[in-house]
Amino acid sequence: MAVPAAVDLVDLALKATSAYQRPDLGARLQLTRKRLADPNVRVLIVGEFKKGKSQLVNALVNAPVCPVDDDISTAVPTVVRHAETTSVTLVRESATDDDRPPERTDVPIGQLAQYVSEAGNPANRAGLSYAEVGLPRKLLAGGLVLVDTPGVGGLGSAHGAATMSVLPSADAVVLVSDAAQEYTAPELEFLSAAMKLCPNVACVVTKTDLYPHWRRILEIDKGHLEKAGIRADVLPVSSTLRLHAAQTQDTALMEESGFKDLISFLLRKVVARADDLDRRSTAQDVLDVAEQLATSMKAELSAQEDPERAEALVAELTKAKSRADALRQRTARWQTTLNDGVADLISDIDYDLRDRLRTITREAEELLSAADPADIWDQFAEWLHQQVTSAASANFVWTAERARWLAEQVAEHFAEGAEIALPELRFGDTGEMGGKVGTLEQPEDEKFGIGQKLFTGMRGGYGGLLMIGLATSFAGMALLNPLSIGAGLLFGGKTVRDEKRRLMQRRQAEAKNAVRRHIDEVTFQVSKDSRDMMRRIQRDLRDHFTVLAEEVSTSLSGSVAAAQSAVKTETSGRERRIRDLKAELARIDALGERARKLASQSAPTTTAS
């Protein structure tokens, strides 16, 4: 939720930039204002299939918004946000044109299950990006947005990769497991990767009303998290008890459901933290603007108060401006760090992906060499898809970590030790890889039926029968004798076995070629996505720091001009100008003081039923 004090402060700072004719600083504040205008605090509800994610969302908002049943699983993300009246909107985003607005279709809430469940919309054949549900709920009024995601199935599933790609844009993640069993390896793997992209994570253990041993499972889960080095709140809840308590207004049952701790986490550690972040980032932006506005006034005031030192002051400011101008040059240290870092990172990303996929290729070929592809193809294709998707997801996580590290290095070289704000990095949607890369192509299986076996056996048996029959005829035996017939049967059986082995080896070779083609396609597509993502990050960082350098250069140019004009001021007007400058600086100092107070405030806590 936009903090009113932050919005008021930005509006005041915008008036100052307009009054002092600094449109460049105003452009930065307009971006800050736009960021504050977005009330969304996104919380992703993630987890394996059938763990109770949708029921958890329903219990949080006390409404059956997400379809829930034993044979229903979520196929399309469902976004639940605040609205004055209940509404459901289906959203389709263009896969080819990013500038094209998404297609939005309103439907009755009773038809939601037809579009977001696997039963009503299998494999999302309707092509929906997500469904948006609006509800008049106090919990959501502060800007909290709950996103019910399809079961992630670990890093190695398509849904898992899609969820992983949007984690950097989430404010928090709630990993849902149930009390039926302890954390699985895919859950821990997904959670470890998620922590690297979105550190604000909570673990929820559902269905405590169904399993009496849930406390034991909870302790085991905490042990797994501690062993994995994952620091996250673990909250046991029962959605059924929460919904029943809400209907009967039973406070004791509400306490037993465990939802108070979960709601406290959402309000205190997610919404409140987002408000605190808005305050700090807004305060920093306004402080930076105030400092830039004051630069030229301080220089002129110094020259007005001490005209004899004005010449030395102009020389110092000119040198500072030269340094600021140098920051805008392509040869600046931060530019070199950025360009070299992106080039190195693209190379490292490509090598990391190829190395992971080469390992998968070797393992796949070993599996195919040890079995007949015709017998294991379905299981093999699913295994390969999981391995490839897992490799792409892990490569994306690693890329995001390295990109953030590079941004910090560039900022350090730009500011030379001073603390400056970093831009928000835009990561690509690697989760869309499944739609760009075709499925593993199954080689054609050459049939070897009874008729073909009989024909092949007769062909091989004829040779054996003739060869042994002719050999035994010299001993006075007939062409058809027990030895020649036995040899014919033996040779026929061997010919059939050899033909079956040849066909299996052919299937193995064709399957291996299909795997190599599939891996090549994945490598091509994911490498292209990674390169595009790094180029976007490079442009974002370049534009961000170039704008900062231009702001500083503009401020110093004004400072030099102000100091030079101060020397020419008549003695009679000097004192009046000094008073005016001090008054203007007092106003700017007051603006900076308001920004510092805003940064020191903590977000007020709210409650929700």
From TrEMBL:
The keyword Iron does not apply. The chain crosses the membrane at residues 462-492. InterPro entries: Dynamin_N (IPR045063), P-loop_NTPase (IPR027417), TRAFAC_Dynamin-like_GTPase (IPR051943). Keywords: Membrane, Transmembrane, Transmembrane helix. It comes from the Bacteria. Residues 43-196 form the Dynamin N-terminal domain. This is Isoniazid-inducible protein iniA. The lineage of its organism: Bacteria, Bacillati, Actinomycetota, Actinomycetes, Pseudonocardiales.
